[in-house]
Amino acid sequence: MATLSAFPTQTHIANPALEADCSLDGIFESPHDFPPDWALMLTAYIDESMTQGDSHVVVAGFMGNDRSWNTCMRKWRSTLAAHNRTNLHMKELRGWPKDRNKPMLAALGAIPQDSGLRLVYGSVNVGDYRDLTENKFLAIMTDGYMAALHVVLERALSSVPLGQRLKVVGEEIPRYSYRRSIVFRAIQKDPRFQSHSGIPKLAAFESQPKSSILEPADYAAYAKLQQLIDPNSRKAQLCAPILQNRLVTGRTLDAAHSRELMAVAKRSVPWLAQMPAGKSEASKFLRDLEELERDA
Question: Helix, strand or coil for residue 196?
Fold first, then answer.
């Protein structure tokens, strides 16, 4: 496994062509007292073609420093323009049977690696452990997205050198906002991901709506999902270039490891231990979550 190159943080130079859409400004500047050296842009895909509770879930993205992200976004935008596009949303692509998008996907797929970004992913199959989530509280807190997010954060933070910090930028998903905050707070308190003086490697997390800066992650998560569903499918083959990154940190949990993770969760791992303790608090928490999901 290749190791993460520790480039020094670069001063961000505003690029008007980027600022209107993806806005890298500020990502490497906050928190101001100890700004991050690295940024991880994440998004997720869920296999909606399968029955609920028995589906693949992928959370994936890229991490790198300021210099790498600015290089990637310049190349990304210019490559899209060369193919007469202003943005990329994988679910909206058409023309798969005729390979209409093959040249564009091949060109875009090479950009993150060429820019020095590391591919990071985590994936699970909810059906592997669904029977272990016998109560609704546990089922909500360990659904596919939450389990995959936990995996990808652990993999990413394990690649951050001691004494350096990571900021995570994720797609805005209102229904998961509170649950994500629980995971992030717990990981910040995990001694495995702290400096010797107790400073967490995870500097901050912020959500953004769909924008250019999340498009490489969108491509990677979609490609990984197609690979899991059917590696021989036309979509999986056409999306393969984004996954051929020599710098990669990821894990697809098999059934045994997924079930082991749930068993540990039921023994109150740190982020589950922070759930409301009282019965009335738990009930209110579930009602609030259900309202959020209905409104999202």
Answer: coil
Judge whether residue 178 has pLDDT over 90: no
In this structure, the chain runs to a length of 296
Rounded to 5 degrees, φ, ψ at 249 are -135, 110
Number of domains present in the structure of the chain: 1
Backbone φ and ψ of 179, nearest 5°: -65, -40
> What is the pLDDT of the chain when averaged over all its residues?
79
- Domain contains 242: yes
Which pair of structure tokens corresponds to residue 53?
A: 């509770």
In a domain, 9, yes or no: no
On whether residue 10 sits in a domain, the answer given is no
Strands 38-46 and 56-64, by their bridges, are antiparallel
Extract long-range pairs of 178-183: CB within 8 Å, 24+ residues apart: 178/288, 178/289, 178/292, 179/140, 179/141, 179/146, 179/289, 180/146, 180/149, 180/205, 181/205, 182/141, 182/271, 182/274, 182/275, 183/146, 183/149, 183/150, 183/153, 183/271
Among 208, 196, 200, 160, CA closest to 184? 200
Rank 56-65, 127-136, 201-210, 284-293 by mean pLDDT and report only the highest. 56-65
Residue 23: pLDDT over 70: no
Rounded-to-integer distance, Cα 232 and Cα 114, Å = 26
